[in-house]
Design brief:
The chain is α/β, with parallel strands linked by helices. Helices cover 34% and strands 16% of the residues. It starts with a helix and ends in a 9-residue tail after the last strand.
Length: 250
């Protein structure tokens, strides 16, 4: 049935992800080919009241990780029937409220796995080799011989070993690092497949030269890294967090 006859032309999709269209025309073309009307909110929603204002009249939304889909927002948007998270995390989406209001909530597992793994390992290498410091010195004409650190033979501890943690482990193996992983949901077979050794959380912190966080943000993992657990780290250990800010008590 053609889109216009099926009524899909009356279906409106809002986009609150600023980077959604940065990869080119393909995302927009796919929405057009499906017969959907869409509009982008480039600056993001901000407050719940602002989100309600932006989504008034929308049937679905391609949502950023910070959009607060909570009771007061969903109650004010009776037309909204689908919250499609751009990415994996959904801690800003109240699933119980979605159920009460008949709203489907979805996420895209694996969408950013390689990108986040690249970013995490780039941070590790940049910190080890003091790249940012060297860049600042060069730009002000102050050449110094900065002493970096080799990552070969060092220990990388991964807190959370889902797809992103696994991808980081694969990169670390290429640099001849020892990899420890802490994740109660992954089997020893999965760890072994990516060259990682299982370690308890406290032991991992104490043994690692670099610690990279890849755990989900939940009530149980909030402030996982705090004054007590940070004290377990080596004096010169490096902590990298490309997961969620709530994991660390700053």
């Amino acid at each position: 049935m053609p889109a216009a006859e099926s009524g899909v032309m009356n279906f409106t999709v809002a986009v609150t992800v600023p980077v959604f269209f940065e990869s080119g025309e393909e995302p927009a073309n796919r929405l057009r080919e499906a017969g959907l009307r869409f509009g982008q909110m480039a600056d993001g929603p901000g407050s719940p009241a602002r989100l309600v204002e932006l989504l008034d009249g929308a049937d679905a939304v391609i949502a950023s990780s910070t959009d607060p889909y909570i009771e007061e927002v969903l109650a004010a948007l009776p037309r909204l029937k689908h919250v499609a998270r751009w990415g994996v995390g959904y801690e800003a989406v109240d699933l119980a409220a979605c159920t009460r209001h008949g709203v489907i909530a979805t996420r895209v597992v694996g969408a950013l796995t390689e990108a986040v793994a690249d970013h995490a390992f780039a941070l590790l290498l940049g910190l080890a080799r003091r790249l940012a410091e060297g860049d600042h010195l060069i730009r002000r004409g102050d050449w110094q011989q900065l002493q970096g650190r080799s990552v070969a033979g060092k220990t990388l501890g991964l807190v959370g070993f889902g797809p992103i943690g696994q991808a980081v482990a694969d990169r670390a193996r290429g640099f001849r690092m020892r990899v420890l992983a802490c994740d109660p949901y992954q089997s020893d077979e999965v760890l072994a497949l990516h060259g990682a050794e299982r370690a308890e959380f406290a032991a991992l912190l104490a043994a690692s030269d670099y610690v990279s966080l890849h755990a989900a943000s939940t009530p149980e993992t909030r402030h996982l890294l705090n004054a007590t657990t940070l004290a377990l780290l080596k004096p010169n250990a490096v902590l990298i967090n490309t997961a969620r800010g709530a994991l660390v008590d700053e």
